[in-house]
């Protein structure tokens, strides 16, 4: 059994064939955890999960780029996928989060990727942090873990510094606002040292197609014990190699992520599948 711990079959890219894709996955022993990014896609993730007896689960939350910052800063991105701005309403997410098919709260966290000249960076950072802390309170109220998204700024020149910065801010928040059930850092792209810091706090790390694009993540993969690793596709995005990057990704492709981990760690694919399944079941209590 392979569990895609972070998928978006609940997104528009699958609006015509989402159930077909999910049935195919279940027939092939691939379980799917669909993750919301705002109230509509969170509700849709729960609907998907409720349609299946077993093997389909939901994560609900408000993605940092969908947080309404304030009226003067309503357009923080120029990406049309992320131009939806939402006021976080605790009670609405609480209603969804109580559903027994909801296995975590996410994807939530910090995203500095679209910072550009003229942005009031400090005020955006502050707002993202405030909402994230509210969401930690929610996770603790329903006693569920977090699925965390964290990304630094886009500019190559500042990339390393800014990445470190976003993870640094995140660590600080998690230290000051403990999450009872911990959780997972999805799509982890930090260094092995940063990975250690999160692991010390009790969090696991999830990897996707990004690790198949280059050798850049081999070090963090070899340094991180297999017991702390989850796998995901983040579909429809981040299609793993050897498939074409512009092909729509789906949960069946999570096997390529597993193969890369097995190769880098010098393990049998079957062994990786077995341990990662156990890890995922533990985090999400499924
Ligand atoms: Zn995602």
Shape field: globular
Q: How would you name the oligomeric state of the polypeptide chains in this document? A: single chain
- Runs in which pLDDT lies below 50 for 5 or more consecutive residues are none
CATH class descriptor:
Alpha Beta
Architecture per CATH nomenclature, i.e. the level-2 architecture: Alpha-Beta Barrel
Unique bound compounds:
zinc ion
Query: What order do the helices and strands follow?
Result: EHEHEHEHEHEHEHHEHH
Structural domains: how many: 1
Work out the number of β strands: 8
Approximately how much helix is present in the residues? 40-55%
Rg over CA atoms, rounded to whole Å, is: 18 Å
Please give a structural write-up.
The chain has one domain (2-284): Alpha-Beta Barrel (TIM Barrel). The mean pLDDT is 92. It has helices at residues 18-27, 39-50, 90-97, 121-142, 156-176, 192-200, 210-213, 218-223, 254-265, 269-284; strands at residues 2-7, 30-35, 56-60, 102-111, 146-151, 183-185, 203-207, 229-231. The chain is built from ten helices and eight strands. The longest helix has 22 residues, at 121-142. Strand 2 (30-35), helix 2 and strand 3 form a beta-alpha-beta unit. Helix content is 42%, strand content 15%. It is an alpha/beta fold. Strands 1-2-3-4-5-6-7-8 form an eight-stranded parallel beta sheet. It binds zinc ion. The site of zinc ion (ZN) has 5 residues, from loops.
Secondary-structure topology with pairs:
Elements: E1 2-7, H1 18-27, E2 30-35, H2 39-50, E3 56-60, H3 90-97, E4 102-111, H4 121-142, E5 146-151, H5 156-176, E6 183-185, H6 192-200, E7 203-207, H7 210-213, H8 218-223, E8 229-231, H9 254-265, H10 269-284
Parallel strand pairs: 1-2, 2-3, 3-4, 4-5, 5-6, 6-7, 7-8
This protein binds zinc ion.
